[in-house]
Each structure stands twice: as C-alpha cells, then as structure tokens.
Amino acid sequence: MRDAAIRDPAARGAVEIALLYPGLHAIWAHRVWHALWRRGVRFPARAGSQLTRWLTGIEIHPGARIGRRFFIDHGAGVVIGETAEIGDDVMLYHGVTLGGTSLDAGKRHPTLRDGVVVGAGAKVLGPVEVGARSAIGANAVVTRDAPADSVLVGIPARVRRRDRSEDLRGLLSAPEYQI
C-alpha cells in the first residue's frame, strides 16, 4: 500500500487505499488466482478472476505473471492477457490493454520490463517486449519491441530514446506525448 501512496498524490492514507482502490484489490486477488493457476487448479482460478473483473472492472488473467510493486491507477477497463509478463515497479493507467494478436497457444501477450509506465488507453498488442524504464503515451498502440529507456507514442507507436532525467509521469501528461 505504501507504493500506492507514493504513486498517487490523491491518496489520503492506508485505510483509504486498502478499502477504495480497485487496482489494489485486483492485484491482491490476482495473487490468489495466479497461485491456483500455477498449481493446475485452472477453473476456480478463471472463475475467481472473472469475479474480480466484475467487482473491480479490471481483468487480469490468472496466468499473467506480475512482479512486485505493480500499480494500476484508477483501473477501469484494464485488460491483461494470459501470457503477459509484467516486471517490478510497473504502473498502468485506466483503459490499458496488454492483449494478444494471435490464436497460437504460445506466448501471445506483451512483456513489460521493470519500471515501465503505460498511459491511459494505450494498447500493447502481441508478444512484444517493452524495455525497462520506458514510457508509453496515452492512447498509443504498441505492436513492435522497444529498447530500454524509450518513449513510445502514436498509432502505431513511434519509439524515441528517453533522456534518463525525464520524469515518466511528466512525459505521460505532456501534450506532445498524447494522441
């Protein structure tokens, strides 16, 4: 919960975060459903994830692998597919889709490395890899790999190197990085 307070200036305390943050509820529930999924208890895991989706508006497949200190801000409309992999310290805003583009049984969803920030409404599609400390702008559509320390904007997303001194949150709210 400390991470939510650090990443959300509107947070007023631990009780508010624990009771009123659907992104946190979805992540807590995902940890339970993912544990069942890994043990081969697939139907209850999927049923639980659908219950969580109904309660929070956030759909996380129980097969998705999610790192530590993951934060979903607002959360409404977030979809994370079965073979998605999310590193540590990743942040998603509302309306983000980490989706597939294939019906193949293998890896078909994105990998977000550590420290990636994804702006509202962005779509990251297919088995692409977004490198560590990258920022994906609001409503961008990412269909190709991006190296670490990138900024991805547009439809389809264009990649540019991010200056390490640039604040990721500032990049997501700057008008030139929004569609």
Helix content: 25-40%
User: Which segments are poorly predicted (pLDDT under 50) over 5 or more consecutive residues?
Assistant: 174-179
Strand content: 15-25%
Taking strands numbered 1, 2, ... along the chain, how are they ordered across the largest sheet?
3-6-9-12-14-15
Largest sheet: 6 strands, mixed
Radius of gyration: 16 Å
- Number of E-type strands: 15
What is this structure, in a nutshell?
With 179 residues, this protein is an alpha/beta fold. It is built from 5 helices and 15 strands. Strand 14 and strand 15 form a beta hairpin.
Describe the structure.
Strands 3-6-9-12-14-15 form a 6-stranded mixed sheet. The chain has a 5-stranded parallel sheet with strand order 1-4-7-10-13. Strands 2-5-8-11 form a 4-stranded parallel sheet, with no helix packed on it. It has 179 residues and is of the alpha/beta class. Mean pLDDT is 88; it is low at 174-179. The chain has helices at 2-7, 14-20, 22-38, 42-56, 168-173, and strands at residues 59-60, 65-66, 71-72, 79-80, 85-86, 91-92, 97-99, 111-112, 117-118, 123-125, 129-130, 135-136, 141-142, 150-153, 158-161. Helix 3 (22-38) runs antiparallel to helix 4.
What keywords describe this structure?
five-stranded parallel beta sheet; 15 strands; 179 residues; globular; 28% helix; 5 helices; 20% strand; six-stranded mixed beta sheet; alpha/beta
